[in-house]
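I keep forgetting this: the sequence line spells out the residues, with the fold written below as integer tokens. I include a record here:
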Amino acid sequence: MSFPHELLRTIYKDEATTRGIRRQIRACLEPVEVDYKGCRMRVHPADNNTEFQIWRIGRTHEEAALRDILKKLGTDPYIAFDVGANAGSFSVRLGAHAPKGSQIHAFEPNPEMRKRLVHNLSLNKPNEVTVHDCAISDQIGKMDFYIPDVNNLGQARLNEPFENGTKRTVQTRKLTEFLPEDETTEIAFLKVDIEGFEDRAIEPLLTEAPKTQRPRLIFFEHKHNSLWKTDITALILESGYKMVKEYGRNALFVKPD
């Protein structure tokens, strides 16, 4: 027997509801199409934390950051990279915001999450978003990709197994491959959410790409560093960026004019 999502949401958010009942509610939640800050998304709240937050409160934990980023991107066409696009919480909003002529590249190697991403983009029909089925790294080739056996598919990651989970082999590419041919064309925004592999994705843009094409804005989980090979926060700061604001474990860095 299924119950209306509004009823389940009300019970879940009630302060009197126990943790055990909340776990049971979440485990039984069916996919549902919802309003996501003026966009449409079909969310699967039972097995992905980002989608669950959109179901529960209509936004993700990155909402304040995303609002600030959209303001800073302005009204001129821009190029953006969404690495670890998940179900599309960033790409959907970027696509809705982007002026005509913009280019948004969304990277998602997890087949299930990529399917959800493509569907959510189709609900909003943003012509500016291109989805890529590869993982982003500091090398071109193939790597093991691990998907956890828990209720958060967004935790899938490269090269670091989970105690319980499944393994796939995925193609890896470098962000430098997606830079415009015109070296004077800047990347306006880079978001990276790839569970401890952030350094491998970001570093080539700072060490191999022309300085003119380094991202103007970089947003990532800068305290998720236990699996890093390079202190990417230090490298970003050494490259002239300034941290303008922290949002929990995430931070936004801006390249000086």
About this structure: The chain is about 30% helix and 25% strand. Residues 63-254 form a domain with the Rossmann fold fold (CATH 3.40.50.150). The longest helix spans residues 111-124. The longest strand covers residues 165-173.
